[in-house]
# Entry
Amino acid sequence: MTTATTTHEVTYVDAISQALDEEMTRDERVFLMGEDIGTYGGAFKVTEGFLQKYGEWRVLDTPLSESGFVGAAIGAAMMGLRPVVEMQFADFISCAFDQITEVAAKNHYRWGAAVPLVIRAPFGGGVHGGPFHSECPEGWFFHSPGLKIVAPSTPYDAKGLLKAAIRDPNPVLYFEHKFLYRRIKAVLPQEDFVVPLGKAEVKRHGRDLSLITYGAMVHLALEAAELLIQEGIDLEVVDLRTLVPLDKETLYESVRKTSKALLLHEDNKTGGIGAEIAALLAEECFDCLDGPILRIAPPDTPVPFSTPLEEFFLPKVSDIVSGARRLAAY
Amino acid sequence: MDQAAVSNNIPRSELLNMYFYLRLTRSLEDRITALYRQGRIVGGVYTSHGMEAIAVGYASALHPDDVIAPFHRDMGAFLIRGFTPGEILAQYLGKRTGPTKGKDGNVHMGDMKRGMIGFVSHLADNLPVAAGAALAFKIRGEARVAFAGTGDGGTSRGDFHEAMNFAAVRRLPVVYFCTNNQYAYSTPVRYQMAITDVVERAKAYGMPGEIVDGNDVAAVYLSCRRAIANARAGNGPTFLEFKTMRMHGHSEHDAATYVPRELLEEWKAKDPILLAERLLTTLGYADESYFHDVGERVRKEVDAGTEFAEQSPLPEGPETLTGVFASLDEVST
# Structure
C-alpha cells in the first residue's frame, strides 16, 4: 500500500466534501438530498459544484420537509440506492425523529429490510447559533436501537468515517461539528481510505486519568492535557469517534490502566452519552476505579444565544483542568 | 359499475381472480377473528371486513415488480403478492415461520422480495417512504410504480402532506390512496377534517384526484389501472379516495358502539363480495355453484394455513437479540 500524500492541507469541511465526491464517483447509487444543497451548494457549502457535476437527480434540492425527505431517503435506500441526506442544521433533525427512530431504525429488525442511509447533521455550538442552530441531538438517537452514530473530530476521521458510513448497510447518523468546519486542517492520504465504524482512538497516551470525549471537545481535551502535564497530571485522551456501536474495549482498557475516568461532552448533562459510559464503567471497571467517575457537560438548558451565556454554557479548558485536578487528588 | 364498462375493460379471468381473493381475504380474516376470540391470538387484529375490494382491486392492477406500502386493512394485497394464509397466520400467532419471525405481529409484515413495504403503526409514515421508492425508480429510469395509502385519520398527519407535496414536485411515479372508512378508531371524519372529500386536497398538491366506490372491486381496479398507467408513463402521482365503511371495530376488541347501527346496516347491503357476485352473475361469468366452490377452496386453504401455523415453532427468547443491524452480505456492495 502506498502512503503517498499531498502537502495540501484540507479543512474538516473540505474533507466531508471530498468524501461525498469520491463516493459519488465510486458508486453511482450514491445520491444527495437536502435543503439548498443544489444551486446554493448547501448552507455550509459542503456540496458546492455538485449539482453541475452530478445533475439534479443525484443532488436533489428538497422542499422544507425533513420528515418527508428522510422518509423518501429510506424508501430509496430500500430500493437499493445509497442516499446521503443533509440536515441543514442538526437541530432540524427533530422534525424527522419519527422517520429515523420508527421507520429507519426498526425496518431491518422487524421484517429484514436493510436501510443503507446516511444522515449528515451539522451540530454543536460556539457559533452564536442560539437554541435552534447549536444543538447536540445525538443523545436522542443514542437510545434508539438500530441506528449507528458517528461524530468525527478531525479532517481524517471526517473523511474516513463518512466513507465508512456510506458503505455501511444500516442507517448511520453522521454528526459533523460546525465549529470545526474551517478551524482545523490536515494533510490527508491521496488514496482511498475509510475509518471503520466502532473504533475509538487514543489521541494522547497518559497514565493518570482517562478523559473520554468526542467531536469538538476532543480539541479542548488535548489543550487541557498540555496544561495539566505542566502540573504533573498526565491525561489520556480517548476520542470515541463512533458512539454506536461503542468501542467499549478501548474505553475499558484505558480506564483499567489509569483507574480514573473523566467524561466530557457538549450535549447537556442529564441522560447524555456520559451518563451511559459512567454506568458501563461502574458495571465493568468497578474493581479498578480509584475515584468517582466525573462528567463535564453543559447545564440542562437550551443552548443560549448571547456571547456570555453561550460561553457559560459550553465546557471550557478550565472546567477540564479543575475536574482533572479534583480526580487526580484521589 | 355498469356492465359494459366492466366487460369492455376487465378480462373475465381477472374478475374471477379478484373474486377469489375477495373470498380468500374474508375467509382468512374471519379465521383470524375466530382465533382472536378464542384467545389464541394476542394483541391487535385489524381487519378489512367489508373493505376487501380496495386491496384486492389495487394489487390486481399493479405489475409484480411495482411496490406497495399498504394501509393496515389491506390483507388482500399480501395474498395477491404471494403471502400464504399459513405464513400470515404464523405471523398472527407470533411464530418463527411468519414473515417477521415473531418480531412483530398482525398486519405489520413486509418483504422487499415480494414488493411489500412493512407497515408502520404511525399512520402515513410509509407515504414518504413510497415517494422514495418511486424516486429510486425515476433516478434509475425504471418503468415501475409505488402504490401507498392510509386511512382518513392518517391524512391528518404531516407525513401525508410532506409525501404528497414531494411526490408532486418531483412528478414521481407513485399512486396515493385514502381508504376513507369514515372512522379513525372512534373518531368520525367530521372531527378529522373540515371537508367531506379528502380528494379535495389533491388539487392543492397539483395532482389529479378521483373519488372511487371502494366497495366495487371493478371500480377500484379500473381507477387504479388508470392512475398506475399515468404514473408509469411519467405523468406523476394521482390521489384516489376510496369511499367505504369500517364494518368491524378498530381492532377486534372494540365493539364500536360509537358507530350508528343504521349506518352499518346501510353498508352491509353494499358488501363488496355481494356486489362482486351480483356483477359476475349479471355478466354471466359465474353462478351460485361457482361461488360455492370458491368458498370451499378458500376454506381448505385457510384450514391448511391454520394447521401449518399452529404446528410451527415459536421463536426462542434469545432470538430477540438478532437482526437489530443488517450485515454487509445482505445488501449488494
